[in-house]
Amino acid sequence: xxxxxxxxxxxxxxxxxxxxxxxxxxxxxxxxxxxxxxxxxxxxxxxxxxxxxxxxxxxxxxxxxxxxxxxxxxxxxxxxxxxxxxxxxxxxxxxxxxxxxxxxxxxxxxxxxxxxxxxxxxxxxxxxxxxxxxxxxxxxxxxxxxxxxxxxxxxxxxxxxx
Length: 162
What we know:
Structural class: alpha+beta
Distance between the termini: 21 Å
Number of helices: 5
Number of domains: 1
Shape: globular
Helix content: 25-40%
Radius of gyration: 16 Å
Order of helices and strands: EEHEEEEHHEHEEH
Largest sheet: 3 strands, antiparallel
C-alpha cells in the first residue's frame, strides 16, 4: 500500500494541549530564552519550569500552559511560527505519542500508512541528538504532578523507533 503524505490541516489542536498530567512541552535553554523574549514582545507570559536540572540552571524546561501563549485563537495559528521550538517543528512526531493530531488520526483510522515530510523527520532527528540524550542521562526529572523524582522516562527512539 502506498503511503499518504502527512499534511497539517491547521486545526490548532497541537497548540491546545501542551501540558499533560505529568509533563509539559519540552524547551531547550536556548528555546526557553527565545520564548521568554518573544513573550515580552507579544505582551504575554511564558510559564515554564525545569524538566531536567543541571549543575547551574536547567538543562531542559517544560511549559506548564495547557494552550500555548503564542496560539492566536482568533486566527487559529501560531504567532511565532518561524521561531517555534523544535517540538512544534517535529509534531506530530513527538515524545508524548502520535495522538491528538486531527490529520494523523483521520489517516490512521482509514488504515492508511503515513509518510512524514523530510523537514519534520530532520527536526525529530535533531531532537534525538540534542534533547533525548539529556533526558536519557538525567537522574531526576521534574513532573508537574509530583515535583522532582527519579527518572522513569521513555525516549522517542525506544517508543516509536524513530
